[in-house]
């Protein structure tokens, strides 16, 4: 299964989600490939230093270059998980033929509505809070997928 995480600039939330989910999926021995992209991301931008630091605290390396969302990435993905309702709306608008595989992370995992707060420009503690929220959701996602992929 190919999973694509999407945020705005692909420097904070979606790269953190990609790295955290790779770790969670590895622990569950899931057969998944994971990438991330941003709706307004530059090509080859650097991950936020605080995103790198927040993951380092969990012994997860973040070697990341940003990438814009593209038709190729959408077609590669079996599941596209956005960080906000607005990201989902924009992605579905841009790629109407692929709407059925685009969800917010919270919607797909928990069945509800809600956004992952953007820590961009904030303090390390803001990144840690986002990391912790993502980590919880991504453990749930790994559990959900391990049940359906068996």
What does this structure look like?
The chain has six helices and four strands, in the order βαβααβαβαα. It has 150 residues and is an alpha/beta fold. The chain has a single domain (2-143), classed as Response regulator (Rossmann fold). It has a four-stranded parallel beta sheet with strand order 2-1-3-4, with helices on both faces. Helix 1 links the parallel strand 1 (2-7) and strand 2 (33-38). Helix 1 crosses helix 6. It is globular. The model has no long low-confidence stretch (mean pLDDT 97).
Q: How would you sum up this structure in a few lines?
A:
The chain is of the alpha/beta class and 150 residues long. It contains six helices and four strands, in the order E-H-E-H-H-E-H-E-H-H.
The count of DSSP E runs of length 2 or more, i.e. the number of strands, is 4
The CATH class is identified as Alpha Beta
**Percentage beta strand:** 5-15%
The succession of helices and strands, N to C, reads EHEHHEHEHH
The name CATH uses for the topology is Rossmann fold
Largest sheet: 4 strands, parallel
What is the count of structural domains?
1
Strand order of the largest sheet: 2-1-3-4
Helix content: 40-55%
The name of the CATH architecture is 3-Layer(aba) Sandwich
List low-confidence stretches.
none
Assign an overall shape. globular
How far from one another are the termini? 12 Å
Q: Quick check: average pLDDT?
A: 97
**Oligomer type:** single chain
EC number: 3.1.3.48
Pfam families: LMWPc (PF01451)
InterPro entries: LMW_PTPase, Ptyr_pPase, Ptyr_pPase_sf
Keywords: Hydrolase
